[in-house]
Amino acid sequence: MGSGDGDDETVMSPAESLAVIERQKAETSKRLGGDPLPFFLAWGLAWLVGFGAFFLRLGLDGRAYVNISRGACLVTLFVSLALAMAFTALLAWRQGSQVRGASQERGTMYGLSWSVGFVTMTGIAVRAGKDLPEAESYLLWASLSMLVVCLLFMAGGAVFGTRPMFAVGVALAAVNLLGVVLGPGWHALLASVVVGGGFIVIGGVLRLRGVTL
Predict the structure, then answer these.
(1) Which of 16, 55, 76, 92 could form a disulfide with 12 if both were Cys (CB 3.0 to 4.6 A apart)?
(2) Has residue 22 been placed in a domain?
C-alpha cells in the first residue's frame, strides 16, 4: 500500500504536464541554437553593407554619392551574402547534427539549398545580364539574389514551422518588388536600410520576446 501512495504522488495534473513539456521545448530549442539574433544579425549586416555600397555608387538620381568602383561593390555585396549564407548553412547543420532522423535530414537539405540557389542564380544573372547597362545589370543581380533569399526564408519557415521566418520572407519579397519598380538606386537603398536594418531590429525583438527559430 505504501508503494501505491508513492505512485499517486508522482501523477501530474494536465497543467503540470503541459508546463513540463513547454520547459523541455525551450531547453531543446536553446540547445539547438534557436536564438534568432545571430541569424538575423548576419543577414542584416550583409544587406546593410553589401547593398549600401551599391546605393552609394548608384545614388537616387543616377549620380554617385561616393566614388566606389563597380567591381568593389560587387565584391562587397557577394562576400557579404556568401558569409551570411555560410553562417545560415552552419546553423542549419548545427541543428541537424544534434537531432536524429527526419529533422536532421531537413536541416541538412535546407542548408544545401542556399548553395544550390545562389549558384543557379549566379549562372542565370551572368547569362542574362552581360549586355545590360550597369544600373540594370545591378538590378538584375540584386533582385534575383533577394528573390532566392526570400523564397528560402519562406521555405525554411514552412519546413521548420517558424512563422516569423516565413513572415520575413514575405516582407522581403514585397520590398524587393517595390525596389524593382522604383529603380536601381531605390532598390539598393531599400535593400540596405529597410531590409538590412529591419533584420537587425527583428532579431533583437524576437530575442527579447523569447521566440526561437
Answers:
(1) 16
(2) no
Q: Which residues contact 203 (CB under 8 A, 6 or more apart)?
A: 36, 37, 38, 39, 40, 41, 44
Q: Which residue has the cell 531543446?
A: 28
Coil/strand/helix, residue 13: coil
CB atoms within 10 A of CB 37: 17
Structural domain count of the chain: 1
Residue 106 counted as domain residue = yes
What are the backbone dihedrals phi and psi of residue 13, each rounded to the nearest 5 degrees, phi first?
Answer: -75, 165
Higher pLDDT pick, 104 / 123 = 123
Please give the span between the terminal C-alpha atoms of the chain, in angstroms, as a whole number: 48
C-alpha cell at 162: 517558424
75 falls within a domain: yes
Going from the C-alpha of 95 to that of each of 79, 105, 112, 121, 123, the distances in angstroms are 24, 10, 14, 26, 30
Interval 153-178: pLDDT, tens:
899 888 878 888 899 899 999 999 99
